[in-house]
Specification:
- The chain is α+β, with helices and mostly antiparallel strands and about 350 residues long.
- Helix 1 packs antiparallel against helix 2 (about 35-185) and helix 2 (about 35-185) crosses helix 3 (about 190-225).
- It is rod-shaped, with a radius of gyration of 69 Å.
- The chain has helices spanning about 1-30, 35-185, 190-225, 230, and strands spanning about 235-250, 255-260, 270-280, 285-290, 305-315, 320-325, 330-335, 345-355.
- The relative contact order is 0.08.
- Strands 1-8-3-6 form a four-stranded antiparallel beta sheet. It has a four-stranded antiparallel beta sheet with strand order 2-7-4-5, with no helix packed on it.
- It is built from four helices and eight strands.
Length: about 350
């Protein structure tokens, strides 16, 4: 716009100057001097009017030019503001894009963590289910073992009651036999009393001779060296034998008091306790002890208690023999300990035999 405006002004000035020169030249050449003077005055007036018009036009053009410059500056300011605003918007857009990318990255991380947490929770749930199943199985086994132990204890109690009843029945039978024997003796006192007394005397004399011969042999063996054949000769006398069974629960121990009873033992005889027992399950073991005398169950773990065997680990089918078990109170206490096992009970079937050797 400015370029076109400048060109129009230049054309306007060029046209005005040329016209005036042509008019003045023609006038000076054609008209006389007075006429030329008038014409010069008229031309000067016209030129003044045209100059005034040109000044007015130039003033108007300058005003429009200044207004145009002001508008151009305003537009440049608006353009600069728009450029600044666009730059700010671009920066905000870049910042928003970065935030969106960070949010997307955080979202993907959270999703990954959520999946990992779900997997861990599933694994934990599966582990808890397996543990609950194993715990239920263990509880079932414990219930079965406890039930079997209670049944076995009940059967053992019944067996003890039956054994006590058998003992009382035997005592009554022996009393009746004694009474019958007394009545028979009184009935046949005239004929059989003498023969019975003679037979008893003969038996006692024979036993006395045997004991005297044994005592003499002992004296000879003390004074004379024994031959290997004499040393290997051992005489055993069976006193009694016991066979029974019991159940030892998991983490517990069971005791049995064994008495020598009414069997008479000579001073030169030695009492041997021979034992053997089987364990169910057969692949398990148990701790076995033999204590001297009658010992309370609470005192079995006391180290001060005199013991022949203490805490010997025995497997099924094991056995042995010991001396000196009946030196205190003519009795001993057998202890089966299953305290090292907290899950499985033990069923023990044992056989005991007391022998007097000389």
């Amino acid at each position: 716009f400015e370029t076109n405006f400048d060109r129009a002004l230049m054309n306007l000035h060029a046209d005005g100057g040329g016209g005036r020169d042509d008019i003045n030249g023609t006038a000076t050449s054609a008209l006389p001097t007075h006429a030329n003077a008038r014409r010069q005055s008229v031309g000067q007036g016209t030129e003044q009017m045209m100059n005034e018009q040109d000044e007015k036009m130039s003033n108007m053009l300058m005003t429009e030019l200044s207004q145009t410059k002001t508008r151009a500056e305003h537009l440049e300011g608006v353009n600069g503001a728009l450029l600044n605003r666009s730059a700010q918007l671009e920066k905000q857009n870049e910042h928003l894009i970065k935030e969106r990318e960070s949010v997307n990255l955080r979202m993907s991380n959270l999703q990954l963590e959520l999946r990992m947490a779900q997997m861990e929770s599933e694994n934990a749930t599966r582990g808890m289910r397996e543990k609950a199943a194993s715990l239920a199985e263990m509880q079932m086994e414990i219930d079965l073992v406890t039930r079997s132990a209670l049944d076995a204890n009940a059967r053992a109690a019944e067996g003890m009651e039956v054994a006590k009843g058998v003992k009382t029945d035997k005592a009554q039978v022996e009393e009746l036999k004694a009474k019958v024997a007394a009545l028979q003796e009184w009935a046949v006192a005239a004929a059989g009393a003498k023969e019975a007394i003679l037979e008893e005397n003969n038996i006692l004399e024979n036993k006395l001779k045997e004991y005297e011969s044994v005592a003499k042999d002992d004296d000879l063996t003390k004074t004379m060296p024994r031959s290997p054949s004499c040393e290997s000769k051992v005489v055993e006398r069976h006193l009694w034998s016991i066979t029974s069974s019991l159940v030892i629960g998991a983490g517990t121990l069971t005791t049995r008091e064994i008495e020598l009873g009414a069997n008479k033992v000579m001073d030169f005889e030695t009492v041997i306790l021979r034992w053997k027992f089987d364990i169910t399950p057969s692949d398990q073991d148990i701790m076995f002890s033999i204590l001297k005398g009658k010992v309370d169950k609470t005192m079995t773990k006391d180290k001060a208690t005199d013991a022949v065997i203490r805490d010997r680990i025995v497997i099924g089918g094991g056995g042995g023999e010991v001396q000196g078990a009946f030196v205190v109170q003519n009795a001993c206490t057998l202890v089966w300990s299953n305290t090292h096992s907290w899950v499985r009970p033990r069923t023990v079937k044992y056989s005991l035999e007391a022998l007097a050797i000389m």
